[in-house]
Amino acid sequence: xxxxxxxxxxxxxxxxxxxxxxxxxxxxxxxxxxxxxxxxxxxxxxxxxxxxxxxxxxxxxxxxxxxxxxxxxxxxxxxxxxxxxxxxxxxxxxxxxxxxxxxxxxxxxxxxxxxxxxxxxxxxxxxxxxxxxxxxxxxxxxxxxxxxxxxxxxxxxxxxxxxxxxxxxxxxxxxxxxxxxxxxxxxxxxxxxxxxxxxxxxxxxxxxxxxxxxxxxxxxxxxxxxxxxxxxxxxxxxxxxxxxxxxxxxxxxxxxxxxxxxxxxxxxxxxxxxxxxxxxxxxxxxxxxxxxxxxxxxxxxxxxxxxxxxxxxxxxxxxxxxxxxxxxxx
Length: 330
Description:
Blueprint: E1 4-9, E2 13-19, H1 22-27, E3 35-37, H2 40-49, E4 54-58, H3 60-71, E5 75-78, H4 85-96, E6 113-119, E7 125-130, H5 144-148, E8 150-156, H6 163-178, E9 182-186, H7 190-205, E10 211-215, H8 216-222, H9 228-238, E11 241-245, E12 251-255, E13 258-262, H10 276-289, H11 294-308, H12 320-326
Parallel strand pairs: 1-5, 1-8, 2-6, 3-7, 8-9, 9-10, 10-11
Antiparallel strand pairs: 2-4, 6-7, 11-12, 12-13
Protein name: Adenosine kinase
Keywords: Kinase, Transferase
GO molecular function: kinase activity
């Protein structure tokens, strides 16, 4: 019997979240709606210009791990932090969520990663990320026994930015498949897809990755098309299973010739879209590892995404398990 339902691997980042208007983005040359990689100097500059901010442990895959745990799933996480204040915050927060996390912090330079997230009145988030210690993640941080004992190992496409992380991911894929487990990835954002399109397609077509998560823009970018139906057809041909989110239009789950549309969860107010895709993946993977139907997996994903976008920050402040029970999903 597997010890973990889901192992996630990602950039261990502390999110620093503040509200701003669109003029602030323009004045500071911030690309709206994207994850912009920045250096230490730019990180200090943007931090000095931020308004009142909320600090919270984040990182795409970390958010997904926390979400699965919130549903009641058994989760583990690989990610690199430094021996500093933000590293301590990240370690405390992810363990407090019930996630197994034993990647050892090493030294203070480079420091723990941080992402300055500016949320505009429309709820869109623009991320400015200094990767710091994340770039140190490599094959030596892979805990083989954890990979072997996880039903699904999930990683974020953002990990294709730090080069040694690729080696760690490929090692995890080897171990997972040798033990009859599955590999999953999220495409992360359309700019990330633009940087690594050929490599992402190879991961899918080679069978290195079994399950793919994307949003509509990422799927269109992956196949360099404006035809969403064509993108769905192609992604279904390139991987075993794909879940493509479409914001207020819900999600499409595709497996071979099978297509399942899942409507979005009705919300009262859009506050902050940070973590929406991460939490969709959490709900979906929780359902998937519990043997639920693909439709139910999609509903659990939409429920979690709908909850997190009604609050500030990427990790739900309420019980996803209770919400799922109230909705009759578990």
